[in-house]
Amino acid sequence: MNDSFLKDAFVYLLAAGVLVPLFHRARIGAVVGFIAVGALLGPHGLGHLADTLPLVRFVTISSPERAAPFGELGIVFLLFLLGLEFSTARLWALRREVFGVGCLQVVFCGVPLALGAVLIGYPPGVALVLGSALALSSTAVVSQLLIDQHRALAPLGQLVIAVLLFQDLMVVPILLAAELLTGNAPDVLTLAALALVKAVGAVALILVAGRFVLAPLVAAAASTRSRDLIMAITLVVVVGSAAITHRAGLSSALGAFLAGMLLSETAYRHQIEVDLEPFKGLLIGVFFVTVGMSIDFAVVLPRLGWVLGGVACILAVKIVFTYAAGRLMKVAPPAAAEAAVLLAQTGEFALVVLALLAANGALPRADAGVLIAMVGLSLAATPFLARLGRRLGRTLDARLNDNLAAPAQSSAEGHVVIGGFGRVGRMVADALEEEGVAYVALDNDPRRVAEARGAGLPVYFGDAGRAEMLARLGAERATVFVVTLDAPNAAERMAGAVRQHWPSAAIIARAKDTEHAHRLSALGVAGVIPEAQEASLQLAARLLTQLGLPDEVVVARTERARARIETALGRARRQGGQGI
Questions:
Q1: Do the Cβ atoms of 166 and 109 come closer than 8 Å?
Q2: Is the pLDDT of residue 58 over 80?
């Protein structure tokens, strides 16, 4: 290990631990801080003075290429952690957003951007590749913002992530088109067919291996009670999946997302999240520092007007046409508007395409430098765009729902309906609010409803056991019904009303005791949480931890006990269904 590597590592850690927090305190944002630090301390910033001022070498980064793989690894882990929040069923439920909104977004934005490049003077082939690459958004920046705002699971977050997933799939055809511009590519149809086969094969391999190899492997590792072994297997799966999709020409982030999605269905997802979280932020920071280093001030400053104008045009085109794509697929105006602004920046993949075009001679290096600066500035603008988009979404939502205080019919969609807003209902609502998930609640205590309404919460007075009340809250468009009512009879009436009028709806219900839990299960409620048993399990888990048992052993034993309870409730549910 040479001194140059250690010095570069010191500068990266200085940026992450000292300089970027200063930007954060100034409310500029960590992403902007990392990019600014990279531009300042990189070879085109203060590093340019290293030959004349030797002391500058100790606070600048001499080899950004050496850090690039670490930055890419940060993006891989970010998408893996995001995949842990999803499941196969949830991804399938988003197929309309992935292949509908995502496809229209890429086409609607790519075509006008390509036409603009043609008008500037680029050949049609180069213009098409540039327009397609600039139409894509930053998976790393946007995903991180959604996670930081606790909105990854909200309807807006799922819409945005669905679009980003389709954009990742577009990596193959865009790279293929860029390769064809070199004039050295083989027959177009052969190359396209080969790329398609490799891409489909890579995704299929990850999904099949995850289903039939990964789950038994993690279970076997868990049986050894070794957290280190579980983490080692996790790292192999993440890096291996990313390498498979990268080798097939797809985005490595897509492979990491699929790996996370497969591990999300295991009992160890939360432990994995906790163990990886500290490394993710630092590695992503390295990536954005390298983005900042790619900005060449000698090229950009003489053309600063073109750079700023180009960024403004790209942002405007993507906002307008992404909004149009969302509305065409019947996305609500507030969500479509906020998603359009949030996805307006260009993505990190554009840097790869620009470097490839410049290396092949299809794009002059001076033009590539200007476009790289545009990409960097649009990435740096993302935190400001996110705030603008959120304000725009709230404004549109307020205009569309200005009578929400006394609705004839709720216009909410993809929301959660909570029956009862007492201690448990309020805790459920707080959890949903923290994650940005929309909800609406019913309670028959006027004082409690008045207090909640005074705090600006979407709580209404009414009997949650009446189907017509639930219908007024948009029950047919609700994602989940949560029954938290204190009185067992009232809880059973609500569960029965939901099951009768919306039989395919998901219901989660709080049960007072075992007998109540069995009655709810007999009504067909799949998600029954027995309050007494759950408290007993938590008490036993705390006791075992206090006695010195390792965390993974306590978790495994608690899960086994919980599984026995759920098995008994499932038996009651099946018997109740037969009785019906």
A1: no
A2: no
- Asked if 149 and 383 touch (Cβ cutoff 8 Å), the reply is no
pTM score, whole prediction: 0.63
Q: What is the CA radius of gyration of the chain?
A: 26
Mean pLDDT taken over the chain: 77
Q: DSSP secondary-structure letter at 295?
A: -
Q: What letter would DSSP give residue 529?
A: E
Give the model confidence (pLDDT) of 479-538 as tens digits: 889 998 878 888 888 988 888 888 888 888 888 777 777 788 777 777 777 775 666 666
List CB contacts of 280: < 8 A, sequence separation 6 or more.
74, 77, 78, 81
Q: What is the Cα 125 distance to its own chain's centre?
A: 33
Per-residue b/e over 318-354, b at no fewer than 16 CB within 10 Å? bbebbbbbbbebebbbbbbbbbbbbbbbbbbbbbbbb
DSSP state of 28: S
**CA proximity to 476, closest of 562, 409, 408, 568:** 409
Q: What is the pLDDT of residues 236-254, one digit of tens each?
A: 888 888 888 877 776 677 7
Quick one: tokens of 168? 């990742």
* Highest mean predicted confidence (pLDDT) among 44-48, 283-287, 384-388: 384-388
Contact 126, 357 (CB under 8 A): yes
Dihedral sign for Cα atoms in the order 27, 30, 31, 33: positive
pLDDT of the residue at 407: 45
List the strands of the sheet with 480-483, edge to edge. 459-461, 439-443, 416-419, 480-483, 506-511, 527-530
Q: Are 241 and 67 in contact (CB under 8 A)?
A: no
Q: Which of 475, 489, 484, 511 is nearest to 421 (CA)?
A: 484
Residue 458 token pair: 């979407």
CA–CA distance, 480 with 486 (Å, rounded to integer) = 19
Q: What is the pLDDT of residues 348-360, one digit of tens each?
A: 778 778 877 887 7
Confidence check: pLDDT of 183 > 80? no
Using alpha carbons, select from 51, 160, 127 the residue that is nearest to residue 390.
160
Look up tokens 């609700």; give the residue: 478
Q: Which of 38-47, 53-62, 182-191, 429-438 has the lowest mean pLDDT?
A: 182-191
Q: Which residue has the tokens 């006027």?
A: 446
How far is residue 453's CA from residue 482's CA, in Å, rounded to a whole number?
19
Q: Where are the extended beta strands (E) located within 344-464?
A: 416-419, 439-443, 459-461
